[in-house]
Amino acid sequence: MIEHWSEGIADDNMAEDILVELGDVVRRHPWWRARAALTLRLLSDLGIEPPAHVLDAGCGWGVTLDALEAQGYRAVGMDVSRRTLEHLDRPGRTLIEADLTQPLRADAPRYDAVLALDVIEHLDDDREAVRRLGALLEPGGALVVSVPALPAMFSEFDAVQGHRRRYLPDTLAAAFDDSGLRLDRTFWWGRWLVPLLRRQRARTLSRPGETPAQIYQRHLTLPPKAASWLLSLAFRLEEKSALRGSLGSGTSLFAVARRS
């Protein structure tokens, strides 16, 4: 079931064809699976266990939404892209069409946790998005935000998917100013991936006449099976260090904030 809260233009945030055409590729990719696994571990560390009520804002291809449901959470997916939500729709699943650049419903449900994983970098006003998402939390609930890190690594890959910016810890923390939330911590993720991504992103992979989805897919080309397994292993080995906050760099940053 898809609830309608507000209607926006998906292409203003990310080319909708990327979301619609590349779902199968993304759902097999080790990065998205690793991010979903890290998020589940983080929720558990925060004491937010199934069957807690969790909103996956900007649910996109549904990788994290699937993982939450499999774990037993009462998960709800939200996205601005109606076409994407139609691909995710199935009996027993609640989805919400909403544009984070517009006010959310005053009578909206409240959640034990709200996830905004690689969402706010697509928006001009990241602070307003954080404020709106924070208002959907139950008292004591947690907002978990992840963003691409290291502004110097901004590349064609960022531009084609509608990123406005990449972050450092202080710029991510600034997105929580005046949100009414208490920022508990930020931490890096994907340190081992930094040199690999620097080499890849230094190259332009687009070709004349290609669509955004085609360019995006070039950047996401899956490695051979053995290399894909190694990528998954590298993420698993780094997971505990990331959650402890002991990494000094990474391709992503996470932030955890609580509502009083």
UniProtKB/TrEMBL annotation:
Q: What is its EC number?
A: 2.1.1.222
Name the UniProt key words of this record, in alphabetical order. Answer: Methyltransferase, Transferase, Ubiquinone
Q: Which Gene3D superfamilies match?
A: Vaccinia Virus protein VP39
GO BP annotations, alphabetical order: methylation
Q: Which GO terms describe its molecular function?
A: 2-polyprenyl-6-hydroxyphenol methylase activity
Q: What Pfam families does the entry give?
A: Methyltransf_23
Q: Which InterPro entries match?
A: SAM-dependent_MTases_sf (IPR029063)
Which PANTHER family does the UniProt record give? TRANS-ACONITATE 2-METHYLTRANSFERASE, TRANS-ACONITATE 2-METHYLTRANSFERASE-RELATED
Q: What is this protein called?
A: Ubiquinone biosynthesis O-methyltransferase
